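Human:
Take a look at this sequence-structure pair and walk me through the C-alpha coordinates.
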Amino acid sequence: MRLGRHGRSPCSSCVRWCRRGGRRKIIAPARHAAADSPLRVARAYLDFAVANPSLYDAMFLMNTALTFGLEAQLPLRAAFGELEAMFRPFVDAPDLGARTEVAWSSLHGLATLGGGGRLRPELRDRRLVWLVAERLAAVGAARA
Protein backbone atom coordinates (compact mmCIF):
# COMPACT_ATOMS: atom_id res chain seq x y z
CA MET A 1 0.00 0.00 0.00
CA ARG A 2 1.31 3.43 -0.85
CA LEU A 3 1.40 5.84 2.04
CA GLY A 4 0.14 9.35 1.68
CA ARG A 5 1.27 12.54 3.29
CA HIS A 6 2.64 12.11 6.84
CA GLY A 7 3.07 8.36 6.32
CA ARG A 8 -0.65 7.60 6.61
CA SER A 9 -2.56 5.33 4.31
CA PRO A 10 -4.93 7.03 1.87
CA CYS A 11 -7.74 4.99 3.43
CA SER A 12 -7.22 6.45 6.89
CA SER A 13 -6.96 9.91 5.35
CA CYS A 14 -10.25 9.31 3.56
CA VAL A 15 -11.93 8.24 6.80
CA ARG A 16 -10.74 11.41 8.54
CA TRP A 17 -11.81 13.56 5.57
CA CYS A 18 -15.33 12.09 5.58
CA ARG A 19 -15.66 12.46 9.33
CA ARG A 20 -14.56 16.11 9.17
CA GLY A 21 -17.38 16.92 6.77
CA GLY A 22 -15.58 16.63 3.45
CA ARG A 23 -18.68 15.00 2.03
CA ARG A 24 -19.99 18.49 1.34
CA LYS A 25 -17.55 18.65 -1.59
CA ILE A 26 -19.35 15.66 -3.02
CA ILE A 27 -22.97 16.30 -2.18
CA ALA A 28 -23.14 20.07 -2.73
CA PRO A 29 -22.90 19.81 -6.54
CA ALA A 30 -25.37 16.92 -6.51
CA ARG A 31 -27.81 18.85 -4.30
CA HIS A 32 -27.80 21.80 -6.68
CA ALA A 33 -28.06 19.49 -9.69
CA ALA A 34 -31.00 17.60 -8.18
CA ALA A 35 -33.11 20.71 -8.42
CA ASP A 36 -32.71 20.50 -12.19
CA SER A 37 -32.53 16.84 -13.13
CA PRO A 38 -31.21 13.39 -12.31
CA LEU A 39 -28.96 13.71 -15.36
CA ARG A 40 -27.20 16.66 -13.72
CA VAL A 41 -26.78 14.60 -10.53
CA ALA A 42 -25.15 11.83 -12.55
CA ARG A 43 -22.85 14.36 -14.24
CA ALA A 44 -21.94 15.90 -10.88
CA TYR A 45 -21.00 12.45 -9.54
CA LEU A 46 -18.77 11.65 -12.51
CA ASP A 47 -17.28 15.16 -12.51
CA PHE A 48 -16.26 14.65 -8.87
CA ALA A 49 -14.61 11.33 -9.75
CA VAL A 50 -12.67 12.96 -12.60
CA ALA A 51 -11.66 16.03 -10.57
CA ASN A 52 -10.61 14.00 -7.50
CA PRO A 53 -9.31 10.63 -8.74
CA SER A 54 -7.18 9.79 -5.68
CA LEU A 55 -9.93 10.70 -3.24
CA TYR A 56 -12.52 8.82 -5.29
CA ASP A 57 -10.29 5.72 -5.31
CA ALA A 58 -9.71 5.99 -1.56
CA MET A 59 -13.42 6.38 -0.92
CA PHE A 60 -14.76 3.69 -3.21
CA LEU A 61 -11.99 1.29 -4.24
CA MET A 62 -9.75 0.81 -1.22
CA ASN A 63 -10.66 -1.01 1.95
CA THR A 64 -11.49 1.40 4.74
CA ALA A 65 -12.56 1.28 8.34
CA LEU A 66 -15.82 2.99 7.37
CA THR A 67 -19.12 1.21 7.95
CA PHE A 68 -21.64 1.51 5.13
CA GLY A 69 -25.37 0.89 4.92
CA LEU A 70 -27.86 1.52 7.70
CA GLU A 71 -25.12 1.37 10.34
CA ALA A 72 -22.98 4.03 8.62
CA GLN A 73 -22.13 7.28 10.33
CA LEU A 74 -24.43 10.22 9.65
CA PRO A 75 -22.19 11.91 7.04
CA LEU A 76 -22.18 8.78 4.86
CA ARG A 77 -25.91 8.22 5.29
CA ALA A 78 -26.51 11.87 4.37
CA ALA A 79 -24.42 11.53 1.20
CA PHE A 80 -26.34 8.41 0.19
CA GLY A 81 -29.57 10.26 1.01
CA GLU A 82 -28.70 12.80 -1.68
CA LEU A 83 -28.74 10.01 -4.24
CA GLU A 84 -31.95 8.58 -2.80
CA ALA A 85 -33.61 11.98 -3.16
CA MET A 86 -33.45 11.52 -6.92
CA PHE A 87 -35.72 8.47 -6.78
CA ARG A 88 -37.92 9.30 -3.79
CA PRO A 89 -40.70 10.91 -5.89
CA PHE A 90 -40.98 7.81 -8.07
CA VAL A 91 -40.23 4.80 -5.86
CA ASP A 92 -42.10 3.18 -3.00
CA ALA A 93 -40.17 3.23 0.27
CA PRO A 94 -39.40 -0.53 0.36
CA ASP A 95 -37.63 -0.30 -3.03
CA LEU A 96 -35.89 3.04 -2.55
CA GLY A 97 -32.61 1.75 -1.09
CA ALA A 98 -32.17 -1.08 -3.58
CA ARG A 99 -32.98 1.07 -6.63
CA THR A 100 -30.61 3.79 -5.42
CA GLU A 101 -27.84 1.23 -4.89
CA VAL A 102 -28.31 -0.09 -8.44
CA ALA A 103 -28.10 3.44 -9.87
CA TRP A 104 -25.07 4.25 -7.69
CA SER A 105 -23.39 1.00 -8.74
CA SER A 106 -23.92 1.93 -12.37
CA LEU A 107 -22.43 5.39 -11.86
CA HIS A 108 -19.53 3.86 -9.95
CA GLY A 109 -18.88 1.48 -12.84
CA LEU A 110 -18.79 4.37 -15.29
CA ALA A 111 -16.50 6.38 -13.00
CA THR A 112 -14.13 3.48 -12.38
CA LEU A 113 -13.95 2.23 -15.96
CA GLY A 114 -13.76 5.76 -17.35
CA GLY A 115 -11.07 6.78 -14.88
CA GLY A 116 -9.06 3.72 -15.84
CA GLY A 117 -9.22 4.64 -19.51
CA ARG A 118 -11.38 1.63 -20.38
CA LEU A 119 -14.30 3.59 -21.83
CA ARG A 120 -14.28 5.89 -24.82
CA PRO A 121 -14.39 9.49 -23.55
CA GLU A 122 -16.35 10.72 -26.57
CA LEU A 123 -19.29 8.50 -25.51
CA ARG A 124 -19.48 9.81 -21.92
CA ASP A 125 -22.55 11.99 -22.42
CA ARG A 126 -24.38 9.34 -24.44
CA ARG A 127 -23.76 6.72 -21.73
CA LEU A 128 -25.03 9.09 -19.05
CA VAL A 129 -28.20 9.97 -20.96
CA TRP A 130 -28.98 6.28 -21.50
CA LEU A 131 -28.21 5.30 -17.93
CA VAL A 132 -30.44 8.00 -16.46
CA ALA A 133 -33.24 7.37 -18.98
CA GLU A 134 -33.19 3.63 -18.23
CA ARG A 135 -33.16 4.14 -14.44
CA LEU A 136 -36.03 6.62 -14.62
CA ALA A 137 -38.01 4.44 -17.01
CA ALA A 138 -37.56 1.55 -14.58
CA VAL A 139 -39.39 3.53 -11.90
CA GLY A 140 -42.04 4.91 -14.25
CA ALA A 141 -40.67 8.44 -14.48
CA ALA A 142 -40.65 10.26 -17.79
CA ARG A 143 -38.20 13.10 -17.15
CA ALA A 144 -34.43 13.12 -17.15
The two ends are 41 Å apart (CA to CA). Residues 20 and 81 are 18 Å apart (CA to CA).
